[in-house]
Specification:
The protein is an alpha+beta fold. Helices cover 24% and strands 26% of the residues.
Length: 334
């Protein structure tokens, strides 16, 4: 019975010295870089994954060397982080990466879905804020899977945000959000919804191959961005509320032996904090090939872990560690 462990890891400004990111002053010295990369290595060992998706990668060669040392023979990035025209030692864009212990047999582009741009009244030239990865991977049991890695557009400071809850309907969320978009109050959210929609339609075209998305959504649990990524009804209100993707956190419940009769229902661990408030920004989504309720599933979720000890020490995160928790899931094949 084969087990596959997958994870997502936002590295928080992975820029090898002497390179800076965004401003000339933001860079690591040699001692800080050693401390950061030592911590990253220890986290990857704790994750114990076969496949990891990374976000906030500036120095891809340094990351490739790091993961190679830990047994990940296969490594790809979606793009090369761009350097400033005025300063050859300053990065101005970031990218995503994937590391795998199993062969990556193909990398494809995620196509922009033009009708979704029209549906969101997007004006001007559109491109992903960070190009996603779409990687074909051959597992030891000869099963081929597609693994997407994405890092959606982040909110701008002071941009208005709605906070939704499980009981909020899709119609209610769309009514509120689309009014905000029409009033041009959140350009970043419009970009993020277009990115999520393009990913949705790219994944919807996948035939007869299981797929997984490792993603920093940059939006909260129950957000409309997650509906755009996962829910057919978001894109076609004639469709029933049916899922293209499933959140692994909802596929696995840890058995509690002898729970206290007055114990509260466990809440989901935040993966990031902003102004002291915890949010779930980092997700692993799976296709119905891994859904616990699907009759023809080939595997199912048998573990779900959020590594957040460093955030319990410092909720804002440290540049020497990360400002995100690492999210891991185990899939056990039938």
């Amino acid at each position: 019975m084969m087990k596959l462990r997958i994870g997502t890891f936002n590295l928080f400004q992975f820029a090898e010295p002497p390179y800076a990111w965004y401003t000339k002053k933001e860079k690591f010295n040699t001692k800080q870089w050693l401390e950061k990369t030592t911590w990253i290595k220890s986290q990857i060992v704790k994750m114990d994954c076969d496949i990891i998706g990374f976000q906030e990668v500036f120095s891809k060669d340094a990351l490739e060397r790091l993961v190679n040392d830990l047994g990940f023979k296969y490594f790809e990035t979606s793009d090369t982080a761009k350097l400033s025209n005025n300063n050859p030692l300053k990065y101005v864009t970031t990218t995503v990466a994937i590391a795998s212990k199993f062969p990556i047999t193909n990398i494809q582009k995620v196509r922009i879905h033009t009708p979704s741009l029209k549906n969101h009244s997007y004006e001007g030239h559109f491109s992903f804020s960070r190009l996603p990865i779409k990687a074909s991977i051959l597992l030891p049991n000869t099963q081929k899977i597609l693994v997407y890695v994405a890092h959606l557009k982040s909110n701008r400071l002071n941009a208005f945000e709605y906070v939704f809850h499980k009981e909020d309907s899709l119609i209610h969320k769309k009514d509120l959000i689309f009014k905000t978009l029409d009033d041009k109050h959140s350009v970043a959210l419009k970009q993020r919804l277009c990115e999520a929609s393009s990913l949705f339609f790219d994944m919807r075209k996948v035939k007869n191959k299981p797929f997984i998305l490792l993603c920093d959504v940059n939006d909260k649990e129950f957000s409309l961005t997650i509906d755009a990524l996962t829910n057919h009804m978001y894109h076609d209100d004639k469709r029933k509320n049916s899922a293209l993707l499933y959140d692994v956190a909802n596929q696995y419940k840890k058995i509690q032996h002898n729970p206290h009769p007055e114990a509260k229902k466990p809440t989901r661990k935040p993966t990031s904090y902003f102004q002291g408030r915890g949010n779930v920004l980092d997700y692993i989504f799976i296709s119905n090939h891994f859904d616990k309720d699907h009759d023809d599933k080939i595997a199912q979720v048998t573990d779900f872990i959020v590594l957040d000890t460093h955030l319990q020490v410092n909720r804002n995160g440290s540049l020497l560690t990360s400002d995100h928790a690492q999210v891991i899931s185990e899939l056990t094949f039938r």
